[in-house]
Amino acid sequence: MERHTTDSRVKGVSTGTTILAVKFRGGVLIGSDSRASIGGSYVASRVINKLIQVHDRIFCCIAGSLADAQAVTRAAKFQLSFHSVQMDSPPLVKAAASVLRELCYSNKEELQAGFITAGWDKKKGPQVYTVSLGGMLLSLPFTIGGSGSTYIYGYVDAKYKADMSREECLQFATNALALAMGRDNVSGGIIHLVVITEEGAEHIVIPGDKLPKFHDQ
Amino acid sequence: MMNIDQRPCESQRGGFSFENSRRNAMLEENLSKLGYSAPKARKTGTTIAGIMYKDGVILGADTRATDDMVVADKNCMKIHYIAPNIYCCGAGVAADAEITTQMMASNVELHSLSTGRPPMVVTVTRQLKQLLFRYQGHIGSSLIVGGVDATGTHLYSIYPHGSTDKLPYLTMGAALHSVFSLSLSTDRSGAAAAMSVFEDRYKPNMELKEAKTLVRDAIAAGIFCDLGSGSNVDLCVITKAGVEYLRGYDQPAQKGRKQGEYKYKPGTTAVLTKTVTPLSLDLVEEAVHLMDTK
């Protein structure tokens, strides 16, 4: 699907990463690990939050170069808030994803950042979009990204069910992230999750010692 | 000037021109083929650190500046003034850190005069991050900005590519030259050593004395465990009341004192023979230049 950068080629601080977003019944769940690394061997930050709120009910998670991702999400946040004032209504999730896609595509030579956008809007309800490195925009029921995602493609393909409940979805996402963090050296730390529904956004943090264990001695 | 990567229908977009980067890379490659190496910028090597404690923030730094493997400055100042309530530690290329922080100090002063309010740490961080991002990592300075402003105590780290992080305790070292660098440990400098001290002993809301000792220990770890860091520990304590700049707070690396007497008395070595041969030289030219010592 999308090209995954090997981490050592990302300039500066890299988010390393495992990120995912899943649609469930009535909402959408977006999650990530919390590690930022330099050069694949030093953890620059073990508690970074990669879930950036670009609007009230729209979050995006970042992968790739941290500097590029921070700059792009700042620009997107500004554009979306301006757009929502102009339209006098909260922006569509697709609009948020399109803004990110536009920035990624026009600057594809210079930027090294990919995003997953997820949220809820009145028109289409819960949605998940992925914007890859080169600026491809796809709408999907669930998506995974980052260097750690390669280790869990099998797991998510096997375990995903359409129309899960909130609890089932939380368990699915937590398991997937824990499995990836267990195998990928540049993903780790704690799990950040945000559940977005019509009511609003709820941030859940799962500390390292509460992560699900899979045959770890 | 047209950029090679641009589409022909587009006119030059604004922003920094990186045309010379390609030329510089080619020059470096050609020079190394001839056996020369491009001159390396003087780096601070460095260990810098910052923590938030009960009443404010403490910044710490070592004082060694290196030119490759030679110590260029044994007592340089790495904690730079930005505003009366905001200071910034700089690691990486010495010139970049120095100039960037000086520029930021004057920008912040102008901004504060324009808004009529004392400056905020987040303003400095935002401007620094946008500057460094615009130059895409070519300005090799890693910074720790700390201060106390109207909204409270803040501590930020800024990496050369323009990413920032807000944490209660931070350490930084010199930037990586290239992401493919194999000697990651020397490029990282004392940051890892200092971070290990913080991770072990940091507690939120420490008292001043304990916090100063912790920062001093972290910088000392960097001084001992990293070749690019050394000499003294500088500290800067910033609180709502004011700033205490402790230059030369500690000198952990003392030069060892010789334990014995290593001089030999004249006559220890016996002289067996002595031959004097005068060299007959002709004086060809004599010129006297007086040195102006006024």
From TrEMBL, chain A:
<dbReference type="GO" id="GO:0051603">
    <property type="term" value="P:proteolysis involved in protein catabolic process"/>
</dbReference>
<dbReference type="InterPro" id="IPR001353">
    <property type="entry name" value="Proteasome_sua/b"/>
</dbReference>
<comment type="subunit">
    <text>Component of the proteasome complex.</text>
</comment>
<keyword id="KW-0378">Hydrolase</keyword>
<keyword id="KW-0888">Threonine protease</keyword>
<comment type="subunit">
    <text>The 26S proteasome consists of a 20S proteasome core and two 19S regulatory subunits. The 20S proteasome core is composed of 28 subunits that are arranged in four stacked rings, resulting in a barrel-shaped structure. The two end rings are each formed by seven alpha subunits, and the two central rings are each formed by seven beta subunits. The catalytic chamber with the active sites is on the inside of the barrel.</text>
</comment>
<dbReference type="GO" id="GO:0005737">
    <property type="term" value="C:cytoplasm"/>
</dbReference>
<dbReference type="InterPro" id="IPR023333">
    <property type="entry name" value="Proteasome_suB-type"/>
</dbReference>
<dbReference type="InterPro" id="IPR029055">
    <property type="entry name" value="Ntn_hydrolases_N"/>
</dbReference>
<comment type="function">
    <text>The proteasome is a multicatalytic proteinase complex which is characterized by its ability to cleave peptides with Arg, Phe, Tyr, Leu, and Glu adjacent to the leaving group at neutral or slightly basic pH. The proteasome has an ATP-dependent proteolytic activity. This subunit is involved in antigen processing to generate class I binding peptides.</text>
</comment>
<dbReference type="Pfam" id="PF00227">
    <property type="entry name" value="Proteasome"/>
</dbReference>
<dbReference type="GO" id="GO:0005634">
    <property type="term" value="C:nucleus"/>
</dbReference>
<dbReference type="InterPro" id="IPR000243">
    <property type="entry name" value="Pept_T1A_subB"/>
</dbReference>
<comment type="function">
    <text>Component of the proteasome, a multicatalytic proteinase complex which is characterized by its ability to cleave peptides with Arg, Phe, Tyr, Leu, and Glu adjacent to the leaving group at neutral or slightly basic pH. The proteasome has an ATP-dependent proteolytic activity.</text>
</comment>
<dbReference type="InterPro" id="IPR016050">
    <property type="entry name" value="Proteasome_bsu_CS"/>
</dbReference>
<dbReference type="GO" id="GO:0019774">
    <property type="term" value="C:proteasome core complex, beta-subunit complex"/>
</dbReference>
<feature type="active site" description="Nucleophile">
    <location>
        <position position="17"/>
    </location>
</feature>
<keyword id="KW-0647">Proteasome</keyword>
<keyword id="KW-0963">Cytoplasm</keyword>
<protein>
    <recommendedName>
        <fullName>Proteasome subunit beta</fullName>
    </recommendedName>
</protein>
<comment type="similarity">
    <text>Belongs to the peptidase T1B family.</text>
</comment>
<dbReference type="GO" id="GO:0004298">
    <property type="term" value="F:threonine-type endopeptidase activity"/>
</dbReference>
Automatic annotation (TrEMBL), chain B:
<dbReference type="InterPro" id="IPR024689">
    <property type="entry name" value="Proteasome_bsu_C"/>
</dbReference>
<keyword id="KW-0647">Proteasome</keyword>
<dbReference type="Pfam" id="PF00227">
    <property type="entry name" value="Proteasome"/>
</dbReference>
<dbReference type="InterPro" id="IPR029055">
    <property type="entry name" value="Ntn_hydrolases_N"/>
</dbReference>
<dbReference type="GO" id="GO:0005737">
    <property type="term" value="C:cytoplasm"/>
</dbReference>
<dbReference type="InterPro" id="IPR001353">
    <property type="entry name" value="Proteasome_sua/b"/>
</dbReference>
<keyword id="KW-0378">Hydrolase</keyword>
<keyword id="KW-0645">Protease</keyword>
<feature type="domain" description="Proteasome beta subunit C-terminal">
    <location>
        <begin position="252"/>
        <end position="288"/>
    </location>
</feature>
<comment type="similarity">
    <text>Belongs to the peptidase T1B family.</text>
</comment>
<dbReference type="GO" id="GO:0005839">
    <property type="term" value="C:proteasome core complex"/>
</dbReference>
<dbReference type="Pfam" id="PF12465">
    <property type="entry name" value="Pr_beta_C"/>
</dbReference>
<keyword id="KW-0539">Nucleus</keyword>
<dbReference type="GO" id="GO:0004298">
    <property type="term" value="F:threonine-type endopeptidase activity"/>
</dbReference>
<comment type="function">
    <text>Component of the proteasome, a multicatalytic proteinase complex which is characterized by its ability to cleave peptides with Arg, Phe, Tyr, Leu, and Glu adjacent to the leaving group at neutral or slightly basic pH. The proteasome has an ATP-dependent proteolytic activity.</text>
</comment>
<keyword id="KW-0888">Threonine protease</keyword>
<dbReference type="InterPro" id="IPR023333">
    <property type="entry name" value="Proteasome_suB-type"/>
</dbReference>
<dbReference type="InterPro" id="IPR016050">
    <property type="entry name" value="Proteasome_bsu_CS"/>
</dbReference>
<keyword id="KW-0963">Cytoplasm</keyword>
<dbReference type="GO" id="GO:0005634">
    <property type="term" value="C:nucleus"/>
</dbReference>
<comment type="subunit">
    <text>Component of the proteasome complex.</text>
</comment>
<protein>
    <recommendedName>
        <fullName>Proteasome subunit beta</fullName>
    </recommendedName>
</protein>
